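S., here's the first fold you wanted:
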Amino acid sequence: MRKVHVITQKEAVAEEKLKGCTAAVIDVLLATSTIAFLLENNYEPIYAVRDRDQAIKLSKCQSESHILLGETKGESIHGFQYPDPCLIQLNDDKQAAIICSTNGTIAIEKASKANVLFISSLVNGHLIAERIHLQEDDSSIVLVCSGNDDRFSMEDFIGAGQIVEHLTRKGSYNLSDSSKMAREAYRHAHKTSFRDLYECETAHLLKRFNFTGSVEFVLQHHEAVDVVPLYRDGKIVNDHQKITTKRR
């Protein structure tokens, strides 16, 4: 029986221990939600980097057309689009994107040694769970909450619980204590229409920087974005396939 564990913030990730595991990184507000919307709107591949300096360095090396998105501790970066899914518009021609953030993209970097690494949010977590369930191996599953600048993040824990909930609906899994608690948090949040997330720390931070519609936008798209972001060879691509075969 496959094990499922939730790491409550990126600072607790033991990178070497992720080797051989299947992992998913969650940063509901905002990085992983923004990545999902970028893929949905024809931005691919996506490069997730640690900070502004790495983003600029990578941008200078890119020959393909791309956009820059980023924030640091919630503040905008000059010359970068703010990584808010509300601001993502459909791109007629496929274009790459480079994104940096305080939490989500650093979590992706810390989880990059996993054998398989997905990018998840409340907008697409049901599909991530489906893909993990359909895997043919017995690898341990590690769900990495990005957290909020070295602190616990309510929305990411709930996002991890979403994956646990969908996994356990599909089959039997060996859940750690953190996975059980995350699942209960998701069940409660879903039952109450995620009302507590409107008052979480990150929601207040976004309001302080005048990004008042972000939380509502993400929650309105709960399980409505049809993408499976997969980190592969330093790039994030949409690996969504409509699979009907059930894992036995």
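And the second, which I think is the more interesting of the pair:
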Amino acid sequence: MHDPVEQVLSNFRYYRKMKAARLKTGKTIRHHYDLETFIELKKRQNVMARFLDGLELTDLFFLGLQEQFGQDVRLLSNKLSWELPEAAFQIKKNPTPPTDETDKAIRQRIAALNQADIQLYNRAVALKASGYWQ
């Protein structure tokens, strides 16, 4: 699970990357969204809460946080008795997004539009901190 605001920004960067790739190959693009329009799309809001609708976090065998990727992969591999190479505990970081994507007002709007995901994420962080998935 990933911080909801960061996840929306990541989704937008991915959308923009895929759009650019399609344009480069001469394929058509149905929609051209800027960040402000993208975050207002209902299908881009509260994605994790909708995905997990009907499930309780406590029903999950394991839940990791993107921000603790290496630590959580190590914990999961121990739970499952997996022997993984050290490279499995590394994560590739995307370059820092442009300033316009991280503007405080944009982040506040994303947070306002994704309250269900934020509540879910905060619950996951609290459960994880309590040792629930240890």
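Why I say that: Residues 10 and 69 are 16 Å apart (CA to CA). Residues 4-24 form the longest helix (21 residues).

Talk tomorrow,
H.
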